[in-house]
Amino acid sequence: MHGRFCPICGKSIDYAIDGLCIECYRKSNPILR
Fold first, then answer.
1. H/E element holding 26?
2. What pLDDT digit, counting tens, does each position of 1-33 carry?
3. Which residues fall within 8 angstroms of residue 12, CB to CB, at 6 or more apart?
């Protein structure tokens, strides 16, 4: 398993949505809660 890093917050993430961690993805897509 290789780790990914969120480009916004720099956190190591196991599961990414469009390359972002879930928190940053939600912040950039406030409609999806």
1. helix 22-28
2. 456 899 999 999 988 888 899 999 999 887 755
3. 3, 4, 5
DSSP strand E in the chain: where?
Answer: 4-5, 12-13
Neighbours of 18 (CB within 10 A): 8
SS3 for 4?
strand
Domain positions in the chain are 1-33
How far is 26 from 33, CA to CA, in rounded Å? 7
Answer whether 20's CB lies under 8 Å from 8's CB: yes
> Which pLDDT score, from 0 to 100, does residue 20 have?
92
